[in-house]
Specification:
The structure is a single chain. This protein has 110 residues and is mainly alpha-helical. It has one domain. The protein contains two helices and no strands. The N and C termini lie far apart (125 Å).
Length: 110
């Protein structure tokens, strides 16, 4: 009969150990759940901020596109002057290459 009581005591002790481990695991599980909940909330906030930022970027791009479409073209005389200027630069460039930085002295300098 004494051995039966000893077995009951050991089983009771194991049962208490198991309940203690279970309680500890439940605490860890609850802490993990709270961390996941906080992480999910943070991700939702970040997602909302990204959506707002993207909406603002889209709005800015649409405004820029609208401004480019409504921008007046340059007057034909200005385009003609610009074309002649760059043609002149291209014609004179070979004469001036020797005077580029590191190539020699500027004309009219000793």
């Amino acid at each position: 009969m004494a051995s039966y009581t000893h077995e009951e005591f050991e089983l009771s002790q194991k049962h208490e150990d198991i309940l203690g481990e279970r309680a500890l695991l439940l605490l860890h599980l609850e802490a993990h759940y709270e961390q996941q909940k906080a992480k999910t909330k943070q991700q939702c906030l970040m997602s909302q901020a990204v959506k707002e930022r993207n909406a603002q970027i889209l709005k800015d791009l649409q405004n820029a596109e609208k401004n480019l479409q409504t921008k007046q073209l340059l007057h034909p005389d200005i385009i003609n002057l610009e074309t002649h200027y760059w043609a002149s630069v291209e014609r004179k460039l070979p004469e001036w290459k020797q005077y580029l930085p590191g190539k020699g002295q500027l004309p009219g300098k000793p």
